[in-house]
Amino acid sequence: MTTSLLLIIQIVLVIILVIAVLLQKSSSIGLGAYSGSNESVFGAKGPSSFLAKTTFTIGFLFVVNTITLGYMYSQSAQSSVIDEMVPTTNVAAPAVPAASTAKPETPKK
């Protein structure tokens, strides 16, 4: 149940992250002909726009959710369904007949 919820959250985060990245202004217009220091990623003001902060936050949540999902799937991979099975039958196995000590007869010709 928990991994299903986290997987749904992961898909929603991916969609929101893709939309947030696509809404941002491209800083490589014309191979950098129009980009200045104010459009660089680590400029004098830093990532001060709302969209940049949102993208960072969603990206951070995406990474944390990915690590959590990986941990939960690795924990579930260590257990087996066979380990949780409980025998519910009360049918006894048939007893093996005791081996006879008599010599087998030799076939007659």
UniProtKB/TrEMBL annotation:
Belongs to the SecG family. InterPro entries: SecG. It is a multi-pass membrane protein. Keywords: Cell membrane, Membrane, Protein transport, Translocation, Transmembrane, Transmembrane helix, Transport. This is Protein-export membrane protein SecG. The gene is secG. GO terms for cellular component: plasma membrane. Involved in protein export. Participates in an early event of protein translocation. Pfam families: SecG. GO terms for biological process: intracellular protein transmembrane transport; protein secretion; protein transport by the Sec complex. Signal peptide: none annotated. It is found in: Cell membrane.
